[in-house]
Amino acid sequence: MRSKKWMAAALAMMLTIGLSACSSSGSGNAGGNSGGNERAGSEAAKPDPGASGTTITVLNEGAVAIGVGELSALLPEKKKSLIADETQNPRITEEDFTYTPGQPAKPGVFPYFYQSIMSDILQAKHITVKTEDWGWGEPLIQKQTAGFLAKNMPDIIVGETQMPGFAQQGLLEPFPEEMAKEIRETIAPAAWKPMEYDGEIYGFASQPGVNSLFWNKKLVREAGLDPDKAPASWEELAANAQKVTEAGGKKFYGGGVYAGPNAGGYLRYGTLLVINGGGFADEQGQPAFNSDRNVETVEFLKRLNADHPAGLMVNTNEGAYFDAFKKEQTAYIIDGPWRAIESAQLGIDYGMAPIPLSEGGKAGNITIGAAFHSVPKEAKNKEAAFEYIRAMYSKEIQTLIADTGVRSPVLKAVAESEAYQKAHPEMYQHYLAMAGNVQGLPTFAKESSKVWQIFGDAVTKSIMTNGDVKRILDEAQKQAEAITK
């Protein structure tokens, strides 16, 4: 058992990477201790609360939040407010609340339908949901850290980059054995693999994202390239970006991928590290910055930098990078699935495809915008909490996610159906990218925030100066090891 002093230090370490829900986010994979490893139960984990019922407290997810209070009481008020909100374009009307499974669902009322379906499923099991809002990003991490120390936690917490670290610290309840088996067999890996540690699953995301390549067809066409053809390799992507930059005459550029020294950058260009056989850390949470494959990847990033406005690729404000694509100032971008709906709303004629591979590389990805739900060790109603998570991957909820066309469902029975493939071919490709080697951002063995900054600064220096990339990453590795070992 760890001492309270060690635990406090470890939890302080978790105050590392916080981002807002849809600017992205991922999670991590590396070492720690599962702590006690007591199960919530196997077959007995499915509750039968009886007529008296059970009330569970759940943190708002952000993307599907509907308010604070008892969910069944909040739903009618949410419906009224959506209909009455005159600032919406287009306006939401009563007719928009007639969702039929298998038919297009209006994204604007998605949170209402999501929570309404959840409420119906859980009420049938005599479970009432009360929601709380602890914010997102860094404020959420701080409140969760304080809650763990005080041993005062909701029944279900939610988060992104911080969640795997909580699992490694032994602060989360492992999923019941039969539930974990069901998830492994029926759910895309991106929804749970980043929350797997030491053979146990500690979290689930109902609609995670992974990265894809997007491009502006108009700008690609102006460069004399086929706008309907995705680059087949890194070499072709770099060559295409260069041609777009030349055609743009400083009015628009080829673009590529955001590489700022922050989580927004790590979540995007980290996918290129994975594809090329590199990465951020080993299984023990030790830095792995200066591998030959990482050097190759950073050199590729340096090449792409020439096809951006000066300083944009490593701008510490990630919003500026995505604004450039929205304003049709850059042609190529690597981002999460929301880039599709945002581009369509802006009237951008876009293409979407899997990220091309490097020479000798293999398909891989990093979760982004993944809101993982977990049950803390200190939860008072663990069995009912796991029923809530079961409802998240039910056919009803996953069909709703599929019908919105904004993100991919993770339930294989829904995503792999012929109807879904035909109705949402781009999101089906995104679903396929959620399988295989899908990772999250790791938690380093010690002082993660400092170690991340060392790597981010090294990549920025490699991209923006004429310094030798290998030497710069060697120095970063040395600095990081001085902290973690």
From TrEMBL:
Keyword Membrane among record annotations: no
Any one GO BP annotation for this protein: maltose transport
Alphabetically ordered keywords of this record: Signal, Transport
GO CC terms of this entry: ATP-binding cassette (ABC) transporter complex, substrate-binding subunit-containing
InterPro entries from the UniProt entry: SBP
Listed PROSITE patterns: PROKAR_LIPOPROTEIN
SUPFAM superfamilies recorded: Periplasmic binding protein-like II
Pfam families, per database record: SBP_bac_1 (PF01547)
Leader peptide range in chain numbering: 1-21
GO molecular function, one term: maltose binding
The keyword Lipoprotein belongs to this UniProt entry's keyword annotation: no
Residue ranges of the region described as Disordered: 26-54
Protein family according to the UniProt entry: Belongs to the bacterial solute-binding protein 1 family.
Record-given protein name: Extracellular solute-binding protein
